[in-house]
Fold this protein.
Amino acid sequence: MDWISRKSEWASRGALVVWILAGLAAGACQGSSAAAPEAGSHGSLVYGRGPDGARDLFVVPAEGGEPTRLTRHPASDGLPRWSADGRSVLFASNRSGGWQLWRVPAAGGEPTRVRSNDHTEWQADESPDGRFLAFLSSRDGRESLWVLDQTTEEMQSLVRHGRRTVMGNPHWSSDGTRIVFSSNWKAGHQIYVVDVETGKTRRVSPIGGCEPRFSPDGTRVVYVRRRPRDDKTVSHIVEHDLASGEERTLVDWPALNYDPVYSLDGTEIAFASTITGSWEIFRLRLADGKSHRVTFAGGDARYPDYRPAR
């Protein structure tokens, strides 16, 4: 988890100046103006907001607007993912003392614990059919990628790397046959794709990366490109074509740009950026690079996820 927090250099200049600066960054990236993607066409986003130790979950229309609070707890709730049917949100929380998996109804209400044990278990993603849950667990002494059959409660250890390995952000392909994830095994953080049936894993990132997500059609992966010697205040978001290996940069704003996720139709991404001085959520249209700021409340907004069609 990358709970990075910075003071806002431009906070006192107001939301208008912030919007202009973000628009200029989008123009520098794609050579276009910062006109917003079409409003109202991409449903809603869930995300986490708040400083370390006091993060809660919110839902906001993708075009922006007043957010709805889903959780309220003095502990930290984060890494949200919509369930496959869009009726609930899976998230990780340390409200029980250690990091465990929880679920909260999309309409709000009391969160319930998905699993209860003494291990660190977090970063969950539900398969498209809603049957399986992919998540990270330390149950065998190392952080590994596991799959839970939510019908039979059977567990499968899908990927194990070295004992000191740090993994991240598993995400199912839309056909339910593959999971993309990151791991720092042997070569620093890299992006891998694993075949769920065979367990065969292949690395897809050429020089390092984290925070991967499949495109809706499963042909591409978007991720954050970081190298050990890179400027620690800058990261780029790139798109990798799984067939050709070709990559293109989607976001190269002079900031930390993280947590990319495709919209349901694959025409845009949402992501978090520090371009305004603190973490906020943005949308970016892939056809022309035009961007739109979604959140304005302050307090570090991270990990957006588009709600599935219901």
